Amino acid sequence: MDDQTRQFFRGRVVCFALAALSVAGCASHGPLASAKVSHAERAVEEAQQVGAATSAPVELRAAQDKLTAAQAAMAKGNHDRAIRDAEQAALDGEYARALAANQRANTIADEMGQYIKVLRQELERLPK
Amino acid sequence: MSQRTVQLTRVVAVTGVLSVVVGCAASSQQRAAKAQLERAQAAYQQAQADPNVQAYAQLRLGDAQKALRAAEQAEDSQEKIHLGYLAEKKALLASVTGATSKTEQNMEQLRKETSDVLLQKRDRELKAARIETDAKAREAEQWRRVAEARAHDAEAKARETDQGRRQTDEAEAKALAAEHAKATALANELASLKAQQTDRGMVLTVGDVLFDPGKAQVGPGAQRSIDKLADFLKTYPKRNVVIEGHSDNIGDEDFNVKLSQQRADAVRDLLVARGVAAQRIRTKGYGPKFPVVDNDSAAGRQQNRRVEVLVLNEGLSAEGATR
Q: What is the CATH number of the domain that holds B210?
């Protein structure tokens, strides 16, 4: 084997190694990405269930868009991208859900405040 | 060689262009990463300063802090942007969670307050109901009392009426008794005056009012009888009297009539002097026309020389009440 041939083989080995690495990467990131996407799906679903569509429409939209992107990346086998998009989608969904919960709590607290105000007025009208 | 040089030059040029493009891309990405990191830091600082986050979202804040550290330490710009985004969202999530927890805490307070107020309200409502019931009972009691009072009043009135009637009866009885007593007294008095009931009234011959023959002077012994008669007439002011004078049959008739008239007038004058109104008295002299006994004896003649007082029944006028 001359140098050239040796170099060629060395290059090939490097190439193979890289390819193997990349395949291994894909293989190890696949389930993770899949899990992340599932998690994002659940987060978006839960946000929708608490009425985020009306109380946090911007945040929910962002979550849905990123989930779609994650699903698309997943389909293309771009697991890194899928993981990132899914992570962001999950957090966006969680945030939308938190905003919805916050708004709901505020509404209920306001109603309770009104109710108690009325109660107090009624109480004042009664003899002590 | 020259061909190789050209190739090399090309490679260098391409590499240069590529490196410029990559460099530009890298610097814009770095700027984006820096901006994202700054947003994450700002969000984190805001969350950290939030007392609600400190109170209710420590875990979330810790999460955000870890994410921020990771973003800060990321070499790769794209990784930095990604981690920065996650850190920012986690910080925002901490803030919202803190706010929500605070609101939930307030709600818990409101719930307690509500049940408190509801209890108070129920208490007061019960009290009010009791007061109303009491008031109704009081009202009923009042009505009962009013009714009772009315019944009592009616009873009292009835009693009063009864009593009044009784009083009236009593008064009437008293009056009757008084009348009776009066009548009795009158009768007694008249008896003491030797009165005789006649259809004209009571005729009384005033005892002891005797006259000397031919005289119209009332003797001193007659004063008591005159006093009694005057009292009697004053007691019965509605009874008028006719005083009749009589004489014995000795002497001239005209003289005797005149004498008897003078005798009657003498008695009248005595009565008037004792306070009996003159208009109640009428006098008449009859002379010897109506003797009570025979004029045969001196004693008989003495009895015929008399004055008779006719006490007329109530309301009868003295005028015309003559024989």
A: 3.30.1330.60
